[in-house]
């Protein structure tokens, strides 16, 4: 069951429960924009404008059960947008009333516009999510899905819709070349159709494209529903799908159930010897200093703490574990010094608290693999979803990524931290330390500095 709650302390850092990584001084978080519904990625355009993906809150249209919400219905509407904050601080919504699906009546766990990124010529590319069986998207995909198999457990928990109950959201689960001035969209890749016809990880047939990175002539898309990383030529001429493997854990990590209740079929894979295999649910991707793709995972039910991994995918297309011991990662990026910045949605399992306000954190992994907590749990990064480095070289993060109008983008300032050596990782040392800071490739193309007008409108929180 491909689970992404959102849709979406520590074996981390030298086993932080033993070593500890307290911040000497709490970082200052400066609010740039707020009032975003189910906020996702943050990015910067060629003119230094800031963009925030707003999947929306669904609506009163047709519904489908979703693995993203542990099979609770998510319903369609037109409430999504792309929020633009210009360099003078002016805010506007592009693609307003875009297709959206979310829980009702709460409006939580939205899927819609997920990310926007730009190539070196300034062209914009828009990614949309879905969070369910792609055959339910519209009549065309439903008819396509009728020709391909669906696992038995999926038929029990989130089956295909009937023709009169499809969501009528044909723009979801796609990658587009986008004209931000006219609103014109040109489809480059349809993840819904690809998942139906290919099912790269061999599990449930479900898709939820979550993260986009553009580098050179290639788009890199991380599909948290399909447990897959994609490499797609921007002209649509070639594509490659790389399945991200499950993680094997002791069955003792499963939470106790009330008497008489059982886990829904397919929620976890039960293995011999008292073990289980859980979904990876990858959520973030970035290109490293070595040119490889780095993929972060959130992990599926039961969302165990300290078990999320970061994979490195080189030219051979084989995902190898680069780092382990994180909790519910939603995004990552490299800065100009070659440090890997890792954003944790919550430092505790989402089963332990309110999904809207989990204590998230920001971790820096240096080229020598030293891990440092830049913003610790409880210091203001609740349920954080996206990260980028701004034109001013500072870190920008979307927080409170679940719920209507709760989301915001904050800038991270005044970071003073302790450093804790990372346990030996030969792979990591070879991959990063030998490259050096001068070779660092940031996730998104850096633009000119933000204007003083935008920063002047920021609010210290």
List the defining traits of the structure above:
6 helices, 461 residues, globular, mainly beta, 5-stranded antiparallel β-sheet, disordered C terminus, disordered N terminus
Q: How is this structure best described in words?
A:
This protein has 461 residues and is mainly beta. Helix content is 9%, strand content 38%. The protein is built from 6 helices and 32 strands. It has helices at residues 12-19, 139-145, 152-157, 191-198, 426-433, 452-456, and strands spanning 23-25, 28-36, 42-44, 50-54, 63-65, 73-85, 91-103, 113-118, 124-128, 174-178, 185-190, 209-215, 218-223, 228-233, 239-243, 247-250, 269-271, 275-278, 282-287, 293-297, 308-313, 319-326, 329-334, 340-344, 361-365, 371-375, 386-389, 395-399, 407-413, 416-417, 419-420, 459-460. The strands form 8 sheets. It has a 5-stranded antiparallel β-sheet. Strands 3, 4, 5, 6 and 7 form a 5-stranded antiparallel β-sheet that branches. The longest helix is centred in the first third of the chain and has 8 residues, at 12-19. The relative contact order is 0.18.
